[in-house]
Amino acid sequence: MRVTFILAALAVSFAxxxxxxxxxxxxxxxxxxxxxxxxxQSFPDFSxxxxxxxxxxxxxxxxxxxxxxxxxxxxxKQGGMGAFQSVSIRGIxxxxxxxxxxxxxxxxxxxxxMNLSYIDLNQIEKIEIYKGYIPARFGGNGMGGAxxxxxxxxxxxxxxxxxGYGNFNTQKISGFFSAPLTDSLRFNTSLSxxxxxxxxxxxxRNGTPYNTEDDRWEERKNADxxxxxxxxxxxxxxxxxxxxxxxxxxxxEAGGNPGRESNQTVVAGFKRNFVQGILFSDFPLFRALSxxxxxxxRAEKSSAHSYYPLDKIGYAHPGFLEYGVFQTSLYPEISxxxxxxxxxxxxxxxxxxxxxxxxxxxxxxxSKLKWELKRTSGEAxxxxxxxxxxxxxxxxxxxxxxxxxxxxxxxxxxPTQQDTIPASKETNFFPSARxxxxxxxxxxxxxxxxxxxxxxxxxxxxxxxxxxxxxxxPELKAESGWNYExxxxxxxxSENHSLQISLFETRLKNGIVWYTANSFSKxxxxxxxxxxxxxxxxxxxxxSFLEGGxxxxxxxxxxxxxxxxxxxxxxGEPRYSFAAETRLFLPFHLSFTWKTHYRSKVFNDRANRQSxxxxxxxxxxxxxxxxxKSKMEVSVQNILNETHQNIYAAYPQPGRQFFASFSQCF
Amino acid sequence: xxxxxxxxxxxxxAFFACSETTSPEKDDDVFEPGKSLVFTFHSDYTxxxxxxxxxxxxxxxxxxxxFNQDSRLGAIDSLLFVLERYGADNLVLxxxxxxxxxxxxxxxxxxxxxxxxxDLVKINSETAWLAQENSSDLxxxxxxxxxxxxxxxxxDFAYAGAxxxxxxxxxxxxxxxxALIQRLDGYDPVIPGMILxxxxxxxxxxDSIPLQTTNPSxxxxxxxxxxxxxxxxxxADYELEADSLRGLEQVKIAAKTSELFTSGKELGGGxxxxxxxxxxxxxxxxxxxxxxxxxxxxxxxxxxxxxxVESVGGSSPILYDAExxxxxxxxxxxxxxxxxxxxxxxxxxxxxxxxxxxxAIVNF
Lengths: 666, 364
What we know:
heterodimer, A: mainly beta, 22-stranded antiparallel β-barrel, five-stranded mixed sheet, 35 strands, globular, B: 2 helices
C-alpha cells in the first residue's frame, strides 16, 4: 500500500503541473525559512508552526520548554541548563523527530535522541516546527516531525547585544552583527556565551519511597555547564544574480554529569566540540529554474569522564575513565527549483550523507580498544505544490533514502559497558511520502488535510549493538508509520483573532524497542502505537494593548504492542496539555507577559507503573524599553516551583528560576 | 415541589456516595498460620513489583508492591526481604502478615550507593549476613531495623585492581559462613571463582576453596558438599558455549577441593540459577546458551544424570518448594508461573503481570 501511495503522489503531482498563472491567493503566507529564501514558494501548511526569538530573547528558558508550548509537542529534560532534553511530537518519541539547523540534519550516526541542550537559542532567529511530517527539503531520518532551528541572519545592517544574569549563577552574553562589506558582500556574525552552576536545591528521597525518614533537602552538585557558540557567514552576490554563502558554526561546551536524585556524582562530566561549515550557492538558470548546490562539512567530538568510586557509575573500571566519540560528516546536496509562475512549483533534491565515527579517549584502559563505524547514505527527494485556484492548493513530498552501513569491528567503551562490534556491511532503502491540501471556503475560513507515510531507518546503535550487553540485530527493519490530519482555521476579517482546530492520527508500526532477556537486550521491531487527538490554537488580539493565545492538545496516545503493554498510555505522553500566553502592553513602554503550561499525568514506563502527576508551570516577565532599541527584562520561570519526578527515574529539576537581562539593538 | 427536589437530590447523593465506597475488593491470598505463601518478583527492566500466591489456590495476587526493577527476594523464617539492587541499593523488610497494605514494608534501608546487594543469610533470630556484589563490604545486619552491626572488608579477595570481589551468594552451616565470589576483571571472568570460608559469628577469614571454572552465580549446600553453578565467559555473541569451561561444580568442604561435577557439555550451556530438592538429591539449574532462551535441567546428584525439564525464557527464576514437593518456575518469556510436581504442571492464574524475575517462599 505504501508503494502505491508514493507512486500515486508522484504521478498526480506530474499530472497537475501547469504553467497557468493564478490570481492572488487568499491564503496566509506562513513563511518558512530557507537558505534559498528567494526560490521557494511557501505552502500554507497547518502542520507548520513558527516560534520567533521574542519567546526567549532576554529570558532564561530551555528549548524543550519553548517547544512544549506548541500543541502536540511534549518535552522531557533531566535538569537545568545543559542537561539532556528532547521532545516528542504527537506520540512519536524523540528519536523519530528530525532536528536540523538551517535545514541541515543534526543526525548522529551513533544514534539516540538528539540532545537539544547543545543548541544555544542566542544563535537562533526562529524555530520551525513541522508536526507529523518531514519536508522533503530537509532529508534526514525521521518520521514524527521536524524541528528546524534557523540561525540569525540579516540582510539589513544591524547589531544586537544582550547580557543577563539569574539565580544559580546563570550568565548569558551574546552579540549579533550584520553589515555589508561591499555592495555585493555581506557579513553576519553571532557569538554567545552562557553558563550556570545549576546548584539548585532539591528534595532527595534517597531512593526509598517507603522510608521518608531519610529524605532531605540537598544542593545539586557537579551540575555546572558552560558553552561558547557562534555562527559566522559571508554572503556574496555575483553577476547574473548568483548567490553564494559560506557559514561556519561552532560550539564548545562542557559540564558536570550530576547523576540521579539519590546518586549524585562528584567528578563525572562531559565535553563537546562542534564545528560545521556550509557552502551554499544558488544559480538562477532561467526565469523559472534555479539550481542550488550545498556542501556541509562537520566535525564533532563528544567525550565523557567519571571517577569510580567517587562517582558511583562505571564500577567495573576504578579510577579515572574518559571515553568518547569523534565524528566527521560530509553532506553534499544539489537541488533544482522549478517555479514557472505562481500556480505551481517543484523541487528536486539529491543528497549524500557520509558519517565516520571512531573513539576518542586519553586513558590507557581504553586506548587499546579501537572501533570504526562508517555510514554512507544517499537520498533523492521531491516536493511539488500546485495552486489550482485562489481557494485550493495541493502539495506532495516524496523522498527515497538508501543507507549503507559499514562496520570495521572493534570494542566500544563507555563507563558502564563495553561491547564488541562485529565487522559487517549492508545497504537498505527507505521511502517516505506525504500529500496535503489546503482549501479556503471563504476568506476567513480554511480547511486542511494531509496524509503521510514515513520510514525511519534503524540507527547504528539499534542495528549493531554498540553497547554492553546489547546484541546486534542486522535483520532490524525500519520503523514505519502513517500520519493523518484534518484541520480548520477561522479568522476574523481584521485577522486579530484566529482559531485553528486540527484532528490528527499518528500510527507507528515495527517500532524498535529493546527487548531484554537474561540481562541482554536486543532491538526488535515489536512496538506499535496509535495516537489520535485534537489540537487547538487560538490567537487573539482584542485590544491594541492586549494579545494572547492558547494552544492545547487532547490526545489518546495508545501502545498497541502485543503483550502486557497493549492499550497502555505511551510513556511520556499526557492525555491533555495546554499552554496559554497573555501579553499586556502597558504605559511607559512596559510590557507584561504571563504563560501557563499544563500537562496531565504521564507515565515514565510502558507498563504504566511509574506515574508523574499532572503539573502546572507558570512563567512571568516584565520588560521595559527604557530607550529606543534598549530593553530591560526580569522574568521568573516555574513560579510555583514544580519539580516532581517519579522516584524510580528522578533527575532533579531546577524549580523556580529568576533572570534579569539588558539588550541593545543598533 | 421543592421538598421533592430536595429528597431526590439527597437520594442521588446517597446513591453516588454508596457507589463510590462499594468498589470491588481484591481477592488476594493472605497470611494463614501453618500455610505458606510463594512470593514472585516481576520486572520488565523498567518497573518492578512484588506479588504472591498460595500453593493451595494457585491464584496470583492482584495487589502488588512496587520496588526497583532489579530486585532479589530472600525469605528468612516468616519474613520476606527484598534486596533492591544496582541503581536503588536498598534493603527492604516486608512483613507478609500485613499484605497487601503498603504498611507491610517494615523498613527500606538505603545501603551504599552502587553496592548491589545480592544475598542474605540468617545467623540467628536477630542478625543476618548481607552480601553486596559491587562492594567489598560484607555486612552483618540487625534484621529488626536493618542497621549494620559490623562490616567485614573482603577487598583482599578481589581480582587485582578491582574494588569488589563480586560476592554473589552466601550459605551458612554451623559456625561457618560460605561466601561465593566471582572475582571479575571489570565485567570479564578471567580467573576462576572462589568460595571463602568465614566465621559465621564475626566474618573473620578461615579458609578459601578455589573453583575450577569462572563466573559462578549460585551455590547450595548438601551432605557436606557445596554445589556451584558457573556460567564461564560469554563469547563475542553473548553466548555460553556447551563446553567444559562451565557447569555444575561439586566442592568437597572437608577436602577443600572442587571439581566439575557436570560440565556445560552435558548441560548444554552455562549454569545460572540453582535450587535443590534435598530429599531426592536433585539439583535444578537454568541453562543459558544464547539469547533465544533458557532451559531448566535436573541433575541427579547421586549419579550425575542430566535431564531436560522445561524450556523457558532468559532470567526465568526457579525455586524448589520442599514443603509442597514442587519446583516453582517463572517463565520470563511467557510471563507464566507454574509448578512442576513430578510430571504434573500446575499453572498459577494471573491477570496482566510483568515478566517473573524472582521467587521466594515464606512458611508460616
